C-alpha cells in the first residue's frame, strides 16, 4: 500500500484523490451534524489510505433510489443514519443477524457481486465501548436497566440479550413504546428476559441492577437532566450514558460522585464505525485517545 498525503480531516493535501480511490460515506437527512466524515477521515489519514468518506444528504423519499445507486457509482458502501436506517433495512439485498433483529441498517457494504449487504453495528459499538471503559463488567453479571425505547434503545437491548444479560428492564416515559419494543424483540426470537417498568415506578427498576444505560436525549446539552433518582441503584452498577455532548452528563456526574463505575457515550460512536471501515478500506482501525479528541473537536 502506498501512503498518500492527507490532511487529518481526510482531504488530500494536493486536493485530489487518485483514480483508484476507495469511496464510502454516510447517508442521512440532515447530515451536516454528522461526525462520521471526521472520524473516518482521521483513520484514512492515519493509515495513509487512498480513499474518501463523504457526507451524503439524502431526503427520505429518495433514499431507496440513492442506496440502490451505490454499486453503479462504485461506492464500497456507506453508513446510514437517522432517519434512513429503516429504509435501508427494507432496501438492501442481504441482512446480517444484528440488522435483522434491530429492524434497522447502519452499515451497507457493496459485495463483490454488486449486492447490497446491510449490517447493524450499533450494538457492537455499544458493547465494545462498555468493555473498553469498564473491563470488569460482563453481560452475565446481572440485570440491566435501559431507559428509553427509541432506535438507540433497540440496539442496546438486542446487544445485551445477545451477549447473555439475564434480565433487561425497559423503562420509558411512554410505556406503550417500550411494550412495542419488547413485542418486536419477541417477534425476532428475543423474548426471554425483557420486562417493561412503568415510568412512575422507574426507581424500582434500579434495585439490584448491574448496569444502567440512558438511551434518551435527556442530559444532552440544551436538554434537562434525566429525571431518575439513583438511590436504589447498587454502587457496584456500571452507569453508561450514550449521550456524549457533554462528555460527562449530569447522570454520569451523579453516578461517579456516589461511587458507581461509569462509561461515556462517545466510544459507542467510535466503535460502531470500525466494522464498516474494515470492510470498505481493508484496515482494522483502532479507537485511540487522539481519535476521540479529534472527533470531539469537530
Ligand atoms: P433514538 O432513536 O435516537 O433513540 P428517539 O426515537 O427520538 O431517539 O427516542 C428518544 C427517547 O428519549 C425516547 O425513549 C423518549 O421517550 P418517549 O418514547 O416517551 O418519547 C425519550 N425522551 C425524550 N424526552 C424525554 C423526557 N423529557 N423524559 C423522558 N424521556 C424522554
From TrEMBL:
<feature type="active site" description="Proton acceptor">
    <location>
        <position position="85"/>
    </location>
</feature>
<dbReference type="GO" id="GO:0009423">
    <property type="term" value="P:chorismate biosynthetic process"/>
</dbReference>
<keyword id="KW-0521">NADP</keyword>
<feature type="binding site">
    <location>
        <position position="97"/>
    </location>
    <ligand>
        <name>NADP(+)</name>
    </ligand>
</feature>
<dbReference type="GO" id="GO:0008652">
    <property type="term" value="P:amino acid biosynthetic process"/>
</dbReference>
<feature type="binding site">
    <location>
        <position position="81"/>
    </location>
    <ligand>
        <name>shikimate</name>
    </ligand>
</feature>
<feature type="binding site">
    <location>
        <position position="242"/>
    </location>
    <ligand>
        <name>NADP(+)</name>
    </ligand>
</feature>
<feature type="binding site">
    <location>
        <begin position="148"/>
        <end position="152"/>
    </location>
    <ligand>
        <name>NADP(+)</name>
    </ligand>
</feature>
<feature type="domain" description="Shikimate dehydrogenase substrate binding N-terminal">
    <location>
        <begin position="26"/>
        <end position="108"/>
    </location>
</feature>
<feature type="domain" description="Quinate/shikimate 5-dehydrogenase/glutamyl-tRNA reductase">
    <location>
        <begin position="143"/>
        <end position="187"/>
    </location>
</feature>
<dbReference type="GO" id="GO:0019632">
    <property type="term" value="P:shikimate metabolic process"/>
</dbReference>
<keyword id="KW-0057">Aromatic amino acid biosynthesis</keyword>
<feature type="binding site">
    <location>
        <begin position="172"/>
        <end position="177"/>
    </location>
    <ligand>
        <name>NADP(+)</name>
    </ligand>
</feature>
<comment type="subunit">
    <text>Homodimer.</text>
</comment>
<dbReference type="GO" id="GO:0050661">
    <property type="term" value="F:NADP binding"/>
</dbReference>
<feature type="binding site">
    <location>
        <position position="122"/>
    </location>
    <ligand>
        <name>shikimate</name>
    </ligand>
</feature>
<comment type="pathway">
    <text>Metabolic intermediate biosynthesis; chorismate biosynthesis; chorismate from D-erythrose 4-phosphate and phosphoenolpyruvate: step 4/7.</text>
</comment>
<dbReference type="InterPro" id="IPR046346">
    <property type="entry name" value="Aminoacid_DH-like_N_sf"/>
</dbReference>
<keyword id="KW-0560">Oxidoreductase</keyword>
<dbReference type="GO" id="GO:0004764">
    <property type="term" value="F:shikimate 3-dehydrogenase (NADP+) activity"/>
</dbReference>
<dbReference type="Pfam" id="PF01488">
    <property type="entry name" value="Shikimate_DH"/>
</dbReference>
<comment type="similarity">
    <text>Belongs to the shikimate dehydrogenase family.</text>
</comment>
<feature type="binding site">
    <location>
        <position position="265"/>
    </location>
    <ligand>
        <name>NADP(+)</name>
    </ligand>
</feature>
<feature type="binding site">
    <location>
        <begin position="34"/>
        <end position="36"/>
    </location>
    <ligand>
        <name>shikimate</name>
    </ligand>
</feature>
<dbReference type="GO" id="GO:0009073">
    <property type="term" value="P:aromatic amino acid family biosynthetic process"/>
</dbReference>
<dbReference type="InterPro" id="IPR036291">
    <property type="entry name" value="NAD(P)-bd_dom_sf"/>
</dbReference>
<feature type="binding site">
    <location>
        <position position="244"/>
    </location>
    <ligand>
        <name>shikimate</name>
    </ligand>
</feature>
<dbReference type="InterPro" id="IPR022893">
    <property type="entry name" value="Shikimate_DH_fam"/>
</dbReference>
<dbReference type="InterPro" id="IPR006151">
    <property type="entry name" value="Shikm_DH/Glu-tRNA_Rdtase"/>
</dbReference>
<feature type="binding site">
    <location>
        <position position="106"/>
    </location>
    <ligand>
        <name>shikimate</name>
    </ligand>
</feature>
<comment type="function">
    <text>Involved in the biosynthesis of the chorismate, which leads to the biosynthesis of aromatic amino acids. Catalyzes the reversible NADPH linked reduction of 3-dehydroshikimate (DHSA) to yield shikimate (SA).</text>
</comment>
<dbReference type="InterPro" id="IPR013708">
    <property type="entry name" value="Shikimate_DH-bd_N"/>
</dbReference>
<protein>
    <recommendedName>
        <fullName>Shikimate dehydrogenase (NADP(+))</fullName>
        <ecNumber>1.1.1.25</ecNumber>
    </recommendedName>
</protein>
<keyword id="KW-0028">Amino-acid biosynthesis</keyword>
<dbReference type="Pfam" id="PF08501">
    <property type="entry name" value="Shikimate_dh_N"/>
</dbReference>
<dbReference type="InterPro" id="IPR011342">
    <property type="entry name" value="Shikimate_DH"/>
</dbReference>
<feature type="binding site">
    <location>
        <position position="272"/>
    </location>
    <ligand>
        <name>shikimate</name>
    </ligand>
</feature>
<dbReference type="GO" id="GO:0005829">
    <property type="term" value="C:cytosol"/>
</dbReference>
